[in-house]
Amino acid sequence: MTPMRAVRKILLYLWVAPTSLPGIFFVLLTFITPGKIRLVDGVLEVHGVIVSAFLKYLAFDAAAMTLGHVVLGRDADALEWSRSHERIHVRQCERWGPFFLPAYAAASLFVWLRGKRAYWDNPFEREAYQHES
Q1: What CA–CA distance (Å, rounded) separates 96 from 102?
Q2: Are 124 and 110 in contact (CB under 8 A)?
């Protein structure tokens, strides 16, 4: 990796850091509770007891969720089969940086107020489903 590319990558991780921070909280919890952390293509993938409970009870029964450069998954299988979809969200986080989570929430609210489905009609989700492999 060239020095310029390394600097660019560091700046990108810093830009996304506010969105990754909640995910880092789960990484830290996984060090002290049953679970696993894996680095895949520059993204931390995390699953375990706490992550699974969070996704099931507080994140609308999601199988996986992207928080910047951290992807939470119910288990290793969920992380595997959702990887291409969640990587689209990682790229969205890289575009939007600290504005990703508010923009995602605002988009869900906007489509819901227009009588559509907050998750399925959210433009961020539509892009992820359209471009996943």
Answers
A1: 10
A2: no
